[in-house]
Amino acid sequence: MRDARRVVALTGSGISAESGVPTFREAQTGLWARYDPQDLATPEAFARDPRLVWEWYGWRRELVAAAEPNAGHRALVELERRAKAFVLITQNVDGLHQRAGNREVVELHGNIRRTRCSGEGVIVDDHEQGDGPPRCAGCGAYLRPDVVWFGEMLPAEAMRHASRSAQSCDLFLSIGTSSLVYPAAGLAHEALENDATVVEIIPGETTLTAHVAYRVPGAAGEVLPELVTRAFGARAGM
């Protein structure tokens, strides 16, 4: 880590779970327990019942708003500050990396705190809050969360940036991700194919485990601060 010229970190739901953000399926509690999230997070579900989908995401936004970045997030901020070159790629939609202080964050699945027009695809920062999905002031289409739903393509530029970064790094950190969701799960293999050292940080084993140079079992909030401290000899900002 100390000697790496280009470091890439890929984060998954594990690091957010340590901040109290429930995983996609764990969010199905209370009134939402009777719904399958895969029946809500689709363009078809939004077309069928936009109010239901908007309210579900409103509930999830409340969960995210109540969470705070943890020691793992803060260690990645310190790593970005110390590394010669650093790119953070995340599958999470909660914005906790930016709230912690990371500057260059590639969001593969969008950001639940942003809203965009379902018709024009543009981000809408100012809209009226009502008891259902608001309408775009420009075209009248419903506004929707700026996240990638099942059946949708990942943002092309974000995926290109992530792929280029994985192919050109010499250290790739896979943090808190099951390595099951593609195309994000393929990034570690792109790094491997280009002779990068791949390190996996997660409590259990995954499909990636057999291929990595090092596996550090444990929670990101415990492992990352220790690694950054050992590499750079300081805990500033963590």
From TrEMBL:
- Amino-acid positions noted as binding NAD(+) in the UniProt annotation, renumbered to this chain: 91-94, 176-178, 220
Domain of life here?
Bacteria
* Active-site residue numbers: 109 (proton acceptor)
Catalytic activity from the UniProt record: N(6)-succinyl-L-lysyl-[protein] + NAD(+) + H2O = 2''-O-succinyl-ADP-D-ribose + nicotinamide + L-lysyl-[protein]; N(6)-acetyl-L-lysyl-[protein] + NAD(+) + H2O = 2''-O-acetyl-ADP-D-ribose + nicotinamide + L-lysyl-[protein]
Please name the InterPro entries in this protein's record.
DHS-like_NAD/FAD-binding_dom (IPR029035), NAD-dep_sirtuin_deacylases (IPR050134), Sirtuin (IPR003000), Sirtuin_cat_small_dom_sf (IPR026591), Sirtuin_class_III (IPR027546), Ssirtuin_cat_dom (IPR026590)
**List of residues binding substrate:** 57, 60
Q: Where is the Deacetylase sirtuin-type domain?
A: 1-235
Its EC top class is: transferase
Q: Which residues form the signal peptide?
A: none
- Positions binding Zn(2+) in this chain are 117, 136
Cofactor(s), by name: Zn(2+)
UniProt keywords, alphabetically: Cytoplasm, Metal-binding, NAD, Transferase, Zinc
One example of the protein's molecular function in GO is: zinc ion binding
> Which family, according to the similarity comment?
Belongs to the sirtuin family. Class III subfamily.
Any domain commentary?
2 residues (Tyr-57 and Arg-60) present in a large hydrophobic pocket are probably involved in substrate specificity. They are important for desuccinylation activity, but dispensable for deacetylation activity.
What the protein does? NAD-dependent lysine deacetylase and desuccinylase that specifically removes acetyl and succinyl groups on target proteins. Modulates the activities of several proteins which are inactive in their acylated form.
What is the protein's name according to its record? Answer: NAD-dependent protein deacylase
Source species of the chain: Rubrobacter tropicus
